[in-house]
TrEMBL record:
One of its GO terms (molecular function) is hydrolase activity. This is Alpha/beta-hydrolase. SUPFAM superfamilies: alpha/beta-Hydrolases. It comes from the Eukaryota. Residues 17-271 form the BD-FAE-like domain. The keyword Chloroplast does not apply. It comes from Wallemia mellicola. InterPro entries: AB_hydrolase_fold (IPR029058), BD-FAE-like_dom (IPR049492), GDXG_lipolytic_enzyme (IPR050300). PANTHER family: AB HYDROLASE SUPERFAMILY PROTEIN C4A8.06C (PTHR48081), ALPHA_BETA HYDROLASE FOLD-3 DOMAIN-CONTAINING PROTEIN (PTHR48081:SF3). Keywords: Hydrolase. The keyword Flavoprotein does not apply. Gene3D superfamilies: alpha/beta hydrolase (3.40.50.1820).
Length: 311
């Protein structure tokens, strides 16, 4: 069962959490929490899409043991519910501020709002692609130093926007038949356009990620004139500056990922191992980006087995 809760208001804008709790969760037997952040490069998100393994775990009795609650940032205006705020109309640090507030609300307020059917002493964070990046920033205490999860997981995460892939012009994104015309995404590039938080899958906004890749514009879209701040959020730089211990971290990435290079995961795993941190790296051989969305048999068993160790 899904419910929505407002965790933040900005003028007349309500920003919400979508919460899924199985009927088996009670105040006497509360469910552990998984906080989930969606992908899309923080540029595009379709509310119509939910990875198959998430949908199954939400709906099945197995969820009462493993994945109990899936939370995604969302906003509601005029009773229309959407997903999280998108760049470039909202910049990266604004998005990260919302992430911080969503974590605080989840830990401090949501138990009372849900009849104490959730156990926030056992909470975990996860996400895919750009959502995996947000997950790592939550896990490493960058987003919200006050609340650190028991473990952090990331699926083919963006981890370093200073890497050559994001800063090299491409004739086209590899998965596209041809280049995306500027005119196709022009209205979505206007930073003064109304802030949105999702788009239909057939919207021209669904071409924003491909446009970003071909135009090498990720840092410009996320940071605007403050591109010098991009290094602050590269996970390898975060780890260099981090003095305290990291939570256990799980990462899975496909070796032939055309949308987020496999090397993005490798450099973070290497940095974690250099710190003697607890990390599990599952290499998905010959898997491209979004394989978990397209493969209806994908269960992400390794990820959930990792989480179960800390329940």
């Amino acid at each position: 069962m899904k419910s929505s809760y407002t965790y933040k208001k900005i003028n007349n804008l309500e920003i919400k959490l979508d919460v899924h709790i199985p009927p088996s969760a009670t105040a006497e037997n509360p469910a552990p929490v998984i906080v989930w952040y969606h992908g899309g490069g923080l540029l595009q998100v379709s509310a119509e899409i939910l990875q198959n393994y998430l949908a199954m775990l939400i709906q099945s009795p197995r969820a009462a043991v493993n994945v109990i609650q899936t939370i995604s940032m969302s906003q509601s205006r005029n009773e229309v519910s959407h997903l999280f705020l998108l760049a470039p109309q909202a910049d990266f640090e604004e998005i990260l501020s919302d992430v911080s507030d969503s974590v605080s609300y989840t830990i401090e307020e949501l138990p009372g709002q849900t009849g104490h059917r959730i156990d926030v002493k056992r909470w975990f964070v996860s996400g895919s692609s750009a959502g995996g990046w947000l997950s790592l920033l939550v896990g490493l205490g960058v987003a919200n130093p006050k609340h650190i999860p028991l473990a952090c997981t990331a699926i083919y995460p963006i981890t370093n926007t200073l890497a050559p892939f994001w800063n090299t012009l491409h004739e086209k994104a590899e998965w596209e038949d041809g280049p995306v015309a500027h005119e196709t995404v022009k209205e979505h590039l206007n930073v003064d356009a109304p802030v949105v938080s999702s788009n239909p899958s057939n919207s021209t906004r669904s071409k924003m990620y491909a446009w970003m890749v071909q135009s090498a514009s990720l840092n410009e879209l996320l940071y605007g004139t403050k591109k010098d701040r991009a290094g602050n959020y590269a996970i390898i730089n975060v780890l260099k500056e981090k003095k305290d211990a990291t939570p256990p971290i799980y990462i899975i990435h496909g070796t032939v990922d055309t949308a987020v290079p496999f090397s993005q995961a490798v450099e973070v795993v290497d940095a974690l191992k250099a710190r003697n941190a607890e990390v599990q790296f599952d290499v998905a051989h010959d898997k491209d980006h979004l394989w978990d969305e397209y493969d209806k048999n994908e269960r992400m068993d390794g990820l959930y087995a990792f989480i179960r160790k800390y329940l």
